[in-house]
Specification:
The protein is α+β, with helices and mostly antiparallel strands.
Amino acid sequence: MRSMWSGYVSFGLVTIPVRLYAATEDARAPLREVHTCGARIRHRRYCEREAREAPQDEIRRGWEAPDGHVVILDAADLEHLPLPTRKTIDVLGLVPVDGLDPITFSRAYYAGASEPAGQRPYALLVTTLDRLGRAAVAKVTIRTRERLAILWPRHGVLVVQTLLWSEEVREPEGLASSSPVAGQELELASLFLDQLAGVDIGQLHDEYATALEQLITAKTAGRELPAAAEPEPAVDLMAALERSIRDARRD
């Protein structure tokens, strides 16, 4: 695994040198952008003022003021942002794991002790969080962005899970249903959901690659795949619930 951040986890007067590693990856089959003739599409960086293609070593970040003036920032500038979280994940407090809102979850990273002296305090923090059943709240700066994060144990390893800030989460205005729910419908729906068997999420797999392979095979052979059937909304809700319960019991 390749480290993409190095710094420290700090709680109280205890400081642990760590490195962060991406905990997830995209397992989907890559599709390239191509022209209708099959040739690859190339995206080029183009300078509007000089009317020419700009090489990578001439590209910087910039902030545009209201008057149109652009402040240019290079990598060295961004490395010197006056943020204490640029190199330190400072534990601010603890929260119950079951009190976290999953909609705020962003990216997950594994944190590993980067020096022999950090192994013992690292193990202590992981074991203590596991024992308490809590997650530690902290802030961390990754790729010039400061993020809220939680630290929690998984399989003996410390996970740094970045979160969205509250202002980044949109409220679902106008989406909640105003339709009343009848008592008998609620009882039947509860009975059906209670009948469903448990699901082992670890045994579920993304079928995108298989479906993509079938599509490519069909296109190569000059044939079309049949369209997937779309479910029809239930006209009689009570009848649909009763049939769902019978089917669940039969399975």
